[in-house]
Specification:
The complex is a heterodimer of chains A (479) and B (423).
Chain A lengths: L2 H13 L5 E2 L2 H5 L15 E3 L4 H14 L3 E4 L16 E4 L6 E5 L4 E4 L5 H10 L15 H6 L7 H4 L6 E7 L5 E5 L30 E8 L6 E9 L2 H12 L6 E6 H4 L17 E9 L2 H20 L5 E2 L4 H5 L7 H4 L2 H4 L4 E4 L2 E5 L3 H15 L7 E6 L5 E11 L3 H21 L2 E2 L4 H10 L2 H14 L14
Parallel strand pairs in A: 2-4, 3-4
Antiparallel strand pairs in A: 1-2, 5-6, 6-9, 7-8, 7-9, 10-12, 10-13, 11-12, 11-16, 14-17, 15-17, 15-18, 16-17
Helix pairs in contact in A: 1-3, 7-9, 13-14, 14-15
Chain B lengths: L6 H8 L10 E4 L5 E4 L2 H6 L6 H13 L8 H12 L6 H5 L8 H14 L6 H13 L26 E4 L2 H6 L1 H13 L4 E3 L9 H5 L4 H17 L3 E4 L2 H15 L6 E4 H10 L10 E5 L11 E5 L9 E7 L4 H9 L3 E3 L18 H4 L1 H16 L6 E4 L2 H14 L4 E4 H8 L2
Parallel strand pairs in B: 3-4, 3-5, 5-6, 7-10, 7-11, 11-12
Antiparallel strand pairs in B: 1-2, 8-9
Helix pairs in contact in B: 1-3, 9-18, 13-14, 16-17
Classes of the chains: A alpha+beta (479), B alpha/beta (423).
One iron/sulfur cluster binds next to helix 2, helix 3 and helix 5 of chain B.
Protein name (chain B): Hydrogenase MvhADGHdrABC CoB-CoM heterodisulfide reductase subunit B
Organism (chain B): Candidatus Methanofastidiosum methylothiophilum
Family (chain B): Belongs to the HdrC family.
Chain lengths: 479, 423
């Protein structure tokens, strides 16, 4: 029996049924690319385990055979992160889709990797709890977003989705299970990572290269009764950022976001179109919640006062009146329209990539101007500078992201977009921003600029946890 | 008339699939937010190569650009399974919001046709029923002459008149009680109705769904010629599959125009109701309703800007006409004594019965598991004793599902309930 058949057979024995394993190129092709510009690469196997023990056996097999393994939940990360750089086994975790616990008193839930935003949103709504729903696909995994520093509708108030993690169970790249947070001390205590050492950091933001998270505890705050969505516009990002920085110091916002004119179009115009004269270049919204009417009133009052005082000082910021329906879209998350990429790709034609970044807000305008120059003047065809900025909790930095659609069936245009994105990434890195969920092409740029001690530490951690370098190899471009 | 387009033509749309995965499950914000499984094929196989229209865009890309070696018999077999084990229910289509949306169902069938032309389809089971249809004009392997055995007890049968009842193969051979109920309802309502007798051939749906083209065309031509020659004003059918083919596809694919208006029995009954001609007696039952895909979302009409006048070339604008969702419900709700409770998944988000797309013969396990899931959904609704559906094929498969579960759930055709109410 050749190696391919032997491994197939062992995988089948592990998961108990041929149905849950494939080494067919037909199936593997469907895991070879995603919506991003990252080129396709084929895995040799796909396996669908349902238990921790099954995953452990797969990991042990992969170590014995020196085969790469790539955890996969829905593959919607927009960074080619599940594309197997060096082939190997895709571990598709969608059969592990149980919501194990929703504890409304201790305000946490325990979920498996395959639980989707849509499913959890349905269940949490029933108990008036919520989570940081991204504007991503409803079918994508809550766990995968959280462990990769996902951003959601409550990031302004509570922090990134990774900051909502309360405990986790992980299968290490060598096959042992480990728990971090309170559940490590008592199996039924999933309420907190602290005050223990932050070992969760070994598995957050690592893009599936340090272990497979099999259970995740997450904080699920209650839904307040009162909500107000303040909307505003400004002629330029300097003004917009100044207003956002000044209001965000109060930490009154759950979501505080502004988008360039091109991103406010549904869908993003492809290729570039001129903004109509007179239209504000930036529009924003601020979602504020209150548990009491008074609390909300105070927030709204402060919001209006900050706008007024900014205007007095010559800022072009102004409150706007937008239709209720488009306001609702800001809180009605997960969103099918955004998640389905309708507002991003419908015109562009199937491909989407971005530099999505964490960047100090006082650098936003500087980077945006350079991005505009690249997209509008240096590419052919020119592309829309469809940019979003969002203040995170802590108010001093936030998301700066450039959504870039492109047509999948026109390779030259796809290359044009990919080239523009990487050029923009370089500008961003040089200004001090850091991309999240970075494709390999970004990782090379990051490493070139990184402190050698940082790269060395990454290698040491990888060597310690993953001595055979089997976990999603290539993603960090160091091993 | 649209004519069949080759697979390459569809690539302008399926290459616009962003791989977002929205088609893998049904979701609506609400409030309350609702989530539901929608893809019978994906739910059964779980691999992403089987899930939703996302998988089909991957597969079409692989086929057209030789990303997999389709000369290898093992790969041919895998490709056949991935493409032919889909129920072509269109559940995925209802979720997608990109320009691929309007084309999804037609495209999946075109993939099948492409594979048929490459010798990678149809499946063994489909090949077998194809031969039966050619020989005896039905896919069940029964003789053509026995097609009308159900009519033996029907008195005063005519072959001309105002309205012709197109029974279809399933009602004629396997669910004769549905055919008899339809006949009985037409008679009770004083309709001047007729049958095609031995001139009724399979509508062609099972062959079209399998990716075949020439054989269904012959059947279509035969049926259209006969109905037109006889001068019928109305064709009534109680089968969702026949309804789709007769009312939409004959003209769409082959430009074959029926002079008669085509009505599903539920439309016929609703028309009667609106004119005050439907007096229904009490039937005590708590029921739910299963939407047949072919009558529901398959009959949605999509506005597409092919010329680029409103948006851009090929952009999907909107669904400007929805399928038959309310009509059968209106009829059902009009029966006194019937307590109607909606399934959790309904209308555009209905879960397929599992029988479509040739699956019942080619992948019976997928068909049965899907039916069981649907029956279990009905079982969860308090007090519901019957699933009502206006399609003999759905009724058959859901009935098989109920039987396999040992469920007390009864599965009946809408026309049977109406027949009962007309007594
Ligand atoms: C239109 C659109 C908008 C988006 N908006 C947002 C947004 O607002 N905020 C946001 O955060 N994201 C956003 N995303 C990105 C993405 O949808 C989310 O991050 C999503 O939750 C990822 O889930 P997935 O199931 O697709 O993960 P995958 O793509 O399958 O996996 C992501 C990464 O996690 C790893 N991984 C998966 N499971 C495990 C596991 N169990 N253990 C260890 N590693 C694992 C994978 O190897 C991969 O590296 C958006 C995406 C799209 C398409
Ligand atoms: S078919 Fe539509 S919904 Fe499905 S992945 Fe493609 S674009 Fe998304
Ligand atoms: S048509 Fe139905 S079975 Fe086929 S992929 Fe779409 S949802 Fe799944």
């Amino acid at each position: 029996m050749d190696k391919k058949d032997r491994i197939y057979k062992v995988l089948t024995q592990i998961v108990g049924d041929e149905k849950w394993v494939s080494n067919s190129p037909v199936d593997c092709w469907c895991y070879s690319y995603d919506m991003s510009f990252v080129r396709p690469k084929m895995p040799q196997y796909v396996v669908l385990p349902q238990t921790v023990e099954e995953i452990q056996s797969i990991v042990r097999l992969a170590n014995a055979e020196k085969l790469p393994i790539v955890p996969f939940t829905a593959g919607t990360n927009i960074g080619g992160l599940c594309i197997p750089e060096q082939g190997g086994i895709i571990i598709d975790l969608k059969r592990m889709n149980k919501i194990l616990k929703i504890d409304t008193e201790s305000r946490y839930a325990i979920i498996e990797p395959g639980v989707s935003h849509a499913e959890l949103a349905q269940e949490l709504y029933k108990v008036k709890a919520r989570f940081g729903w991204p504007v991503g696909p409803p079918s994508a995994s809550v766990l995968a977003a959280a462990i990769n520093h996902g951003i959601g509708g409550i990031t302004g108030r509570y922090g990134l989705n990774s900051q909502q993690i309360t405990s986790m169970e992980v299968i290490l790249p060598t096959g042992e299970t480990a728990r971090v947070g309170s559940c490590a001390i008592r199996p039924d205590a999933w309420h907190s990572l602290l005050p223990l050492p932050r070992l969760d950091g070994l598995f957050q933001g690592w893009l599936g290269t340090t272990g497979i998270v099999t259970k995740l505890g997450i904080f699920i705050p209650p839904v307040p009764d009162y909500v107000h969505i303040g909307t505003f516009s400004a002629q330029n990002l300097v003004d917009m950022e100044k207003f956002m920085r000044n209001f965000s110091k109060y930490e009154y916002h759950d979501d505080f976001t502004a988008i360039s004119w091109w991103l406010s179009q549904v869908p993003i115009p492809y290729p570039f179109v001129e903004k109509p004269k007179g239209a504000a270049e930036w529009n924003g919204y601020c979602v504020m919640y209150g548990f009491t009417e008074k609390e909300l009133e105070n927030k709204v009052d402060t919001f209006n006062k900050v706008i007024a005082s900014e205007r007095k000082s010559g800022n072009t910021i102004d409150a706007t009146d937008v239709p209720e329906e488009s306001k609702r879209g800001r809180t009605q998350l997960p969103s099918q329209i955004v998640g389905s990429t309708k507002n991003y790709c419908k015109m562009g034609g199937g491909g989407i990539s971005w530099p999505g970044t964490f960047t100090p807000s006082n650098k936003w305008a500087l980077v945006y101007d350079q991005w505009k120059d690249i997209y509008m003047n240096k590419l052919s065809p020119a592309l829309s500078p469809a940019v979003r900025v969002t203040m995170y909790r802590g108010t001093h930095y936030g998301m700066l992201r450039l959504m870039t659609p492109f047509p999948r069936d026109r390779p030259a245009e796809e290359a044009n977009a990919a080239n523009g994105i990487v050029e923009c990434l370089k500008v961003l890195l040089d200004a001090g921003g850091i991309p999240y969920k970075p494709p390999v092409a970004y990782q090379r740029e990051i490493n070139q600029r990184a402190d050698p001690g940082y790269v060395d530490l990454i290698m040491k951690v990888k060597d310690m946890l993953d001595p055979n370098h089997i976990m999603n190899p290539g993603k960090y471009q160091v091993r | 008339m649209e004519n069949f387009k080759d697979l390459k033509w569809y690539s302008q749309f399926f290459r616009k699939c962003s791989k977002c995965g929205t088609c893998k499950s049904a979701y609506s914000y609400g409030p309350p937010p609702t989530f539901a499984t929608i893809c019978p094929q994906g739910e059964y196989f779980k691999l992403d190569s089987y899930f939703g229209s996302r998988s089909k865009s991957f597969l079409g890309h692989a086929i057209l650009e030789n990303k997999v070696d389709l000369t290898d018999p093992a790969i041919q077999e895998d490709m056949q399974k991935a493409v032919f084990s889909c129920t072509v229910c269109g559940g995925c289509q209802s979720q997608c919001l990109l320009d691929y949306k309007p084309w999804i169902v037609d495209y999946i069938e075109q993939m099948r046709n492409h594979l048929v032309n490459m010798g990678i389809g149809p499946t063994k089971a489909e090949k077998a029923y194809q031969e039966k249809v050619i020989k005896d004009h039905n896919p069940y392997g029964e003789t053509h002459s026995s097609r009308f055995n159900w009519l033996k007890d029907v008195k005063d049968l005519k072959t001309d008149g105002n309205t012709v009842y197109f029974a279809g193969c399933t009602a004629s051979y396997r669910r004769t009680e549905i055919a008899k109920s339809t006949a009985s309802v037409l008679s009770k309502l004083g309709e001047d109705w007729a049958v095609m007798g031995e001139n009724e051939y399979c509508c062609g749906s099972p062959l079209l769904r399998a990716g075949l083209r020439d054989e269904p065309q012959k059947l279509a031509e035969h049926n259209v010629d006969y109905i037109n020659d006889q001068g019928f004003k109305t064709v009534v059918t109680a089968c969702a599959g026949c309804y789709k083919v007769l009312s939409k596809e004959y003209e769409k694919w082959w430009g074959l125009k029926l002079k008669a208006k085509v009505l599903h029995t539920s439309q016929y009954l609703e028309e009667k109701m609106q004119k005050g001609g439907l007096k229904l007696n009490k039937v005590n039952a708590t029921v739910t309703y299963h939407d047949p895909c072919h009558m529901g979302r398959h009959m949605n009409h999509y506005e597409v800007d092919m010329e680029g006048k409103k948006q851009w070339k090929g952009s999907f604008i909107q669904i400007d006409k929805v399928g038959l969702y309310e009509t059968p419900r209106n009829v059902l709700k009009a029966i006194p004594g019937v307590e109607f409770k909606e399934m959790y998944r309904n209308r555009d988000n209905s879960f397929c019965c599992g029988a479509g797309g040739g699956i019942k013969s080619s992948y019976p396990d997928v068909a049965l598991e899907t039916a069981k899931t649907r029956v279990q959904e009905a079982e969860k609704i308090q007090g519901v004793q019957k699933i009502v559906s206006p399609c003999p094929f759905c009724v058959t498969n859901l009935g098989d599902g109920a039987k396999a579960l040992g469920s007390k759930m009864e599965v009946v055709d809408l026309i049977q309930l109406v027949d009962q109410a007309l007594k």
